[in-house]
């Protein structure tokens, strides 16, 4: 009975949802140190803390935007590598919070199992991507063909090994805490790995589907901060006391306008609009195609109500610009809720930032909390309104069938075309 009471007490401290000290084992939250580079501290020493923070955030924001342009210039392979690195860093930041908050220092295998599950999930998702987009290369190499054929079975086996290791690691007086951390790890995998996988899928649809959504989130974050800094008076939400309605509304209009302009510029370049494909002859990525209708200028009639305001009856636009309105609207109105969610998470565990990786900005997860929500929306949007059946993928699957199965499908397709009147007697013969 005494052991049960002590176990309940130990686990009850970690299970509490209150803001009391017992949730953290009675220890106060770790104070956040000033991670601003010394050179900036000296240069901005005469400014107030408000303006010092403004300049630090501004300088580091420009540096990050410059880095973003550089990796875009380096091509899709570098972009995918960066997405992978960001995913690993975000996972590390969230797992470290759980490790510190719940004082799980003595839990056996906790960190090892967390990273093992990350490896398993990445093996599953990236294996699926390789099979989809590098089909010819996979079929050409015997080891890859075998791994592709049994990919899901191998992935499931690897996960089962981790699951069994977790069960074997359970120890008395730590059961509930260990299951907390097991759930913590899996929710983190769901949020981080799944979303980063969707980002890479968006990239393969064309770099414009990668750059525009990310840029809209960045623009909204910057403009909401700027409008809030100079004009903010009305608090928006209690989770983020510094967020204001002025910043929220100003960021919305600025982001929609930015999305229209950026889409117009990028829609004229094939390197941004064409799908990213792997060339098996050169073993490299290629971005070359005949632009689809989305990226060809079309004339649109302006509503009569707006004639007197703009003075035009028609306007030439790329159809993608219309889609960019949906993307920028989501980035402005729904995207910030990813940030609010992250703010609530940090308040729940009494931490200021996920980490101190970027001075004035916090951790990598602090910068990508809205990006992950945006990635899911873009992937769903493409699947719902843009992407149609892909003939190349159908042909790839067709070529993996046995010869008799291929002949059967050929005869069925020929009979269907004859019935539709699309195949004449000479062609049928």
From TrEMBL:
Fetch the InterPro entries from UniProt. Answer: PC_trans, PC_Trfase_euk
The pathway that the record names for this protein is: Lipid metabolism; Phospholipid metabolism; CDP-diacylglycerol biosynthesis; CDP-diacylglycerol from sn-glycerol 3-phosphate: step 3/3
The record's subcellular locations are: Membrane
Q: Name one GO cellular component term.
A: endoplasmic reticulum membrane
Q: What is this protein called?
A: Phosphatidate cytidylyltransferase
State the membrane topology: Multi-pass membrane protein
Write one Gene Ontology MF term: phosphatidate cytidylyltransferase activity
Q: Which domain of life is it from?
A: Eukaryota
Which family is it part of?
A: Belongs to the CDS family.
Q: Which residues cross the membrane?
A: 109-126, 153-171, 178-200, 206-232, 244-266, 320-342
Q: Which UniProt keywords apply?
A: Lipid biosynthesis, Lipid metabolism, Membrane, Nucleotidyltransferase, Phospholipid biosynthesis, Phospholipid metabolism, Transferase, Transmembrane, Transmembrane helix
Q: Where is this region: Disordered?
A: 1-37
Could you tell me where the Basic and acidic residues compositional bias lies? 1-22
Catalyzed reactions: 1-hexadecanoyl-2-(5Z,8Z,11Z,14Z-eicosatetraenoyl)-sn-glycero-3-phosphate + CTP + H(+) = 1-hexadecanoyl-2-(5Z,8Z,11Z,14Z-eicosatetraenoyl)-sn-glycero-3-cytidine-5'-diphosphate + diphosphate; 1-octadecanoyl-2-(9Z-octadecenoyl)-sn-glycero-3-phosphate + CTP + H(+) = 1-octadecanoyl-2-(9Z-octadecenoyl)-sn-glycero-3-cytidine-5'-diphosphate + diphosphate; 1-octadecanoyl-2-(5Z,8Z,11Z,14Z-eicosatetraenoyl)-sn-glycero-3-phosphate + CTP + H(+) = 1-octadecanoyl-2-(5Z,8Z,11Z,14Z-eicosatetraenoyl)-sn-glycero-3-cytidine-5'-diphosphate + diphosphate; 1,2-di-(5Z,8Z,11Z,14Z)-eicosatetraenoyl-sn-glycero-3-phosphate + CTP + H(+) = 1,2-di-(5Z,8Z,11Z,14Z-eicosatetraenoyl)-sn-glycero-3-cytidine-5'-diphosphate + diphosphate
Gene for this protein?
Answer: Cds2
Q: Does the keyword Transmembrane helix apply?
A: yes
**The EC number(s) this enzyme carries:** 2.7.7.41
Which BP terms does GO give this entry?
A: CDP-diacylglycerol biosynthetic process
């Amino acid at each position: 009975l005494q052991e049960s009471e002590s176990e309940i007490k130990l686990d009850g401290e970690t299970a509490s949802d209150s803001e009391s000290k017992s949730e953290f084992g009675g220890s106060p939250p770790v104070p956040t140190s000033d991670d601003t580079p010394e050179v900036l501290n000296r240069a901005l020493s005469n400014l107030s803390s408000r303006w010092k923070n403004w300049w630090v955030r501004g300088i580091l924001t420009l540096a990050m935007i410059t880095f973003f342009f550089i990796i875009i210039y380096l091509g899709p392979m570098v972009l995918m590598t960066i997405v992978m690195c960001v995913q690993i860093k975000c996972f590390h930041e969230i797992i470290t919070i759980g490790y510190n908050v719940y004082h799980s220092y003595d839990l056996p295998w906790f960190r090892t199992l967390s990273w093992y599950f990350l490896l398993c999930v990445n093996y599953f998702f990236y294996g699926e991507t390789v099979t989809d987009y590098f089909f010819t290369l996979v079929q050409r190499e015997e080891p890859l063909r075998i791994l592709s054929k049994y990919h899901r079975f191998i992935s499931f086996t690897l996960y089962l090994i981790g699951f069994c290791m977790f069960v074997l690691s359970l120890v008395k007086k730590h059961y509930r805490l260990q299951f907390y951390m097991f759930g913590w790890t899996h929710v983190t995998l769901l949020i981080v790995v799944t979303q980063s996988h969707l980002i890479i899928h968006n990239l393969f649809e064309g770099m414009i589907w990668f750059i525009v959504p990310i840029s809209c989130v960045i623009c909204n974050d910057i403009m909401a901060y700027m409008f809030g800094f100079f004009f903010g008076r009305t608090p928006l939400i209690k989770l983020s006391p510094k967020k204001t309605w002025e910043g929220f509304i100003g960021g919305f209009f600025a982001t929609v306008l930015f999305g229209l302009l950026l889409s117009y510029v990028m829609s004229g370049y094939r390197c941004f609009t064409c799908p990213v494909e792997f060339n098996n002859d050169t073993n490299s990525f290629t971005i070359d195609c005949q632009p689809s209708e989305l990226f060809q200028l079309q004339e649109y009639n302006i509503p009569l109500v707006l004639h007197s305001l703009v003075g035009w009856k028609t306007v030439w636009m790329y159809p993608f610009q219309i889609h960019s309105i949906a993307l920028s609207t989501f980035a402005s109105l729904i995207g910030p809720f990813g940030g609010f969610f992250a703010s609530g998470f940090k308040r729940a565990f009494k931490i200021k930032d996920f980490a101190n990786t970027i001075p004035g900005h916090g951790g990598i997860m602090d910068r990508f909390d809205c990006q992950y929500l945006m990635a899911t929306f873009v992937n769903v949007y493409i699947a719902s309104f843009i992407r149609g059946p892909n003939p190349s993928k159908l042909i790839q699957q067709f070529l993996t069938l046995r010869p008799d199965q291929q002949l059967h499908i050929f005869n069925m397709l020929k009979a269907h075309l004859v019935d539709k009147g699309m195949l004449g007697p000479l062609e049928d013969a």
